[in-house]
């Protein structure tokens, strides 16, 4: 019985913790209308606390990517409330969302999205331009971020002079340089081999251990097992909100 996972048990409502950094309340996302209506998210409730390291999983079409887009302020829900760092951002306009993304969120994607004509240092400096960081501070902070991901000796290399794993490290440095409250990673190891995946996951663990909240979407069980908490989506809903790596073993093999 120890391995039995109860949907009911996993969704019992709890008081909102003071340390909640992400809070989704009755979130709906609907595309189309009438006979063509699709509910990508259907009454999703989820809390991520400050300092957590969690992954979001689920089959294709489960709603995990839609949820990540809303958490990342890349899309707005059709209904419900989304509190990011205690601010309801669900109905903000595009300009307000862009400001929130730049100030409070860092993004790492499967594709690295580095500008090929810029050096690693210059790529990492870019978010600070949009955040109006003083030019004298940009270089120092970018170099510090690259050092954190093990690339202190690659500051002046362009992306074509870096391996895939090194490019992803530059992308991680760029994501943390504005000191976000949450680091969001969408399939960050999808383009990497197993050895490089392990190295990148070690960096995420180190960043989390330093206090950064990390939320990762992945379809790879081995990647999700490196996180401390796993959220499972199915049919636009959260069916398990607090899986451990051991729970995931049972779920994947059952």
TrEMBL record:
Keyword ATP-binding: yes
Name of protein: ABC transporter
Domain ABC transporter: 22-254
Cited PROSITE patterns: ABC_TRANSPORTER_1, ABC_TRANSPORTER_2
GO-annotated cellular components: membrane protein complex; plasma membrane
UniProt keyword annotation of Transcription present: no
CDD domains found in the cross-reference section: ABC_MJ0796_LolCDE_FtsE (cd03255)
GO molecular function, one term: ATP hydrolysis activity
InterPro entries membership: AAA+_ATPase, ABC_transporter-like_ATP-bd, ABC_transporter-like_CS, ABC_transpr_LolD-like, MacB-like_ATP-bd, P-loop_NTPase
Gene3D superfamilies for the chain: P-loop containing nucleotide triphosphate hydrolases
Keywords of this entry: ATP-binding, Nucleotide-binding, Transport
